[in-house]
Design brief:
With about 625 residues, the chain is of the alpha/beta class. The chain has 21 helices and 27 strands. The strands form 7 sheets. It has a 5-stranded parallel sheet, sandwiched between helices. Strand 1 and strand 2 form a beta hairpin.
Length: about 625
């Protein structure tokens, strides 16, 4: 799919959509329970007014504009306005602590920040002394802001008003700036999740982003009439490409939920045609389904279990290329009426033609569950530096063990050590202000070194094993991929997070963070009183529950890689404590250092150990949590 020169940049595509489909819906936002629609012509006018306003405030080509908040049409418009002027947006994680924001804003050299509300403004004001290049803070939601008198602060509406005045004095200014842009210009700085240290700012050009979108569209059916739910963090490359870029390329409508707390309800109301979620979200959806089934009446629970087993039986046959017997097909038809259809409706996916999981591997059991229930779930593979896309599974070849064939124009090869290398128009420009890191990531032949271990299967599909640095071996030489074991464990509705150990050890052990709500409901049904998370983890009955779940998981693992010992953490892993990233990826090195004495106790034969860990509260204050926890053996 080729683009004309007029539509070779994202603002150019926005202009094209406004001219071709002026009255069609571009953005919807739910506010006070009501969905409000913005047409493509209205969206283009909003972007133009804000761009003129930025120009009046001195924003110019090459400047960086940061956005901070939940998914809001005005925050997306601000990014497009910055691009229209030749500037570069840098979206930030809305739940990031002030120290994290200070690092990224200073590193990005942002001169303007567009924040959603008072909460985000307060974070920035608390670190303003560390941000000498930040000149203007624009905020969208004015609630609680009327008494603020800081000269840096401006409302979004006031910048729009400035823009209209600027437009009257300089008609055609923004259109001329859009025309100056070239496909090779940097369009976005997207910061990596930072699993091994500080996040790096990946610079992506218009050409990178549009090439990624084009390759995806060659492999997947996406239409201008479709509806998309814009709910993922704007700082994640998945949202940047699958919401912002693909929307500009195809012209579908994006729908912004009222708040993160209403996403599930808003998802059901919209019933999107397509849906993207990270593995954590699919795991949470599965937990919700399993908990509701467990809480149902005896008859409903038996019906759910029976038809679930028949659906998974059929899915395994399809995966193996075997026909589904006529009798089983009849049962699936009945199951569609009684179980599968109602479940898809409850989670808002009855209308979805396809759904994607990406950002990290999804456990095979979770993957098969959703496909068995009629969700056309497919794995997509990419990374921030690759504009979010390398490969996606075809509808008829979805497999929990692969991520599909490389997209058109994207080359993949496996290095001698098993690392996946990628080359194509989607490979990023480089890391912002880090030329050495760029040189290490992209070799002289243009291959990007992903850091993932994988292989190409006989069908030409790419399979990702784990992060190359995380793949290890037991002392007997058995290979171990911790992420695979962890994903198997997290299929249990009672296990919220898990981290497995075993490299250069005789066997595998695990630290488990329970899923509070499901385990709490389980305890309440059995009359077990508890005062909170830590108290719940110390109940012998809860440890027995998790032991049984691990033993069930072990049945699907090679004998040598089965979990032999485990303990329950006194608290969940937390991004504020640097144990996981904002995208819920484990920071293994940090955890290994932080819990080193605990890990040694797991392997030292102790029956209990003390955990002392520092936690960070929302206001930045820190405290130390101490707990004496039992170490449990697992029957293998």
């Amino acid at each position: 799919m080729s683009e004309t020169s007029a539509a070779a940049t994202l603002p150019g595509l926005l202009k094209r959509n406004a001219e071709a489909r002026p009255a069609a819906p571009a953005m919807r936002e739910k506010s006070l329970g009501i969905w409000r629609t913005l047409s493509w012509s209205g969206y283009y006018e909003l972007v133009g007014d804000f761009a003129h306003g930025l120009a009046e405030l001195g924003f110019k080509r090459g400047d960086v504009l940061a956005v901070l908040g939940d998914n809001r049409p005005r925050l997306y418009a601000a990014q497009l306005a910055a691009m229209a002027l030749g500037g570069v947006p840098a979206p930030l994680y809305q739940d990031a602590a002030p120290d994290e924001l200070a690092y990224v804003l200073e590193h990005a050299e942002a001169s303007v920040l567009v924040a959603e509300d008072q909460e985000q403004v307060d974070k920035i004001l608390s670190i303003r002394a560390r941000l000498p290049k930040l000149r203007v803070i624009v905020y969208d939601d004015t609630r609680g802001m009327f008494h603020y008198r800081d000269e840096m602060l401006r409302t979004f509406a006031s910048v729009e008003a400035l823009g209209r005045e600027h437009r009257a004095r300089h008609p055609g200014f923004v259109e001329a700036e859009i025309a100056k842009a070239t496909p090779g210009d940097v369009a976005l700085i997207c910061y990596t999740s930072g699993t091994t240290g500080n996040p790096k700012g990946a610079m992506l050009s218009h050409a990178n982003l549009i090439a990624s979108a084009n390759a995806f569209l060659e492999s997947t059916d996406l239409r201008a009439e479709d509806d998309w739910l814009a709910y993922l963090p704007m700082a994640w490359i998945g949202d940047a490409v699958y919401t912002l870029v693909l929307q500009m390329r195809v012209g579908f409508a994006c729908n912004c939920p009222e708040s993160p707390l209403t996403v599930q309800r808003d998802l059901r109301e919209i019933g999107p045609s397509a849906f993207l979620a990270a593995p954590r979200i699919w795991e949470n959806l599965l937990t919700q389904i399993q908990v509701k089934a467990n809480d149902a009446s005896w008859l409903k629970r038996r019906a759910f279990d029976y038809f679930r087993d028949r659906a998974i039986e059929a899915e395994l046959l399809r995966t193996e290329g075997k026909p589904v017997p006529a009798g089983l097909r009849l049962l699936l038809g009945l199951g569609e009426f009684l179980v599968y259809g109602p479940v898809r409706d409850q989670i808002g996916l009855r209308r979805a033609r396809w759904c994607l999981t990406g950002g990290a591997p999804l456990g095979p059991d979770t993957f098969r569950f959703f496909r068995a229930f009629g969700v056309n779930l497919k794995q997509v593979y990419g990374s921030t530096e690759l504009a979010a896309f390398v490969s996606v599974q075809p509808d008829t070849e979805a497999n929990p063990n692969t991520v599909g064939p490389p997209g058109p124009g994207i080359e993949v090869r496996i290095a001698e050590g098993g690392e996946v290398l990628v080359r194509g128009a989607n490979v990023f420009v480089g890391y912002h202000r880090q030329p050495d890191a760029t040189g290490s990531a992209i070799d002289a032949e243009g291959w990007f070194h992903t850091g993932d271990a994988g292989f190409i299967d006989p069908q030409g599909h790419l399979a990702i094993i784990d992060r190359a640095k995380d793949v290890g071996k037991l002392t007997d030489g058995t290979p171990i991929a911790p992420q695979f074991i962890e994903n198997k464990l997290k299929f249990s509705p009672y296990i919220g997070e898990a981290i497995a150990f075993g490299h250069e050890r005789a066997h595998v052990t695990a630290m488990i963070a329970i899923a509070l709500d499901p385990v709490g409901s389980w305890a309440e049904r059995r009359g077990l009183a508890y005062s909170g998370y830590q108290d719940l983890t110390q109940k012998p009955e809860v440890r027995a529950l998790i032991r049984a779940e691990i033993e069930r998981c072990n049945q699907g693992l090679l004998a040598a890689t089965r979990v032999r010992r485990f303990l329950l953490l006194a608290k969940d892993f937390d991004a504020d404590d640097a144990e996981i990233t904002r995208t819920r990826k484990l920071r293994r090195r940090v955890i290994a250092e932080k819990y080193a004495p605990v890990i040694e106790a797991l392997y030292g034969g102790a029956s209990e150990t003390e955990i002392a860990t520092e936690i960070t509260y929302e206001d930045g204050q820190r405290a130390t949590v101490r707990a004496r926890v039992s170490i449990e053996d697992v029957h293998v």
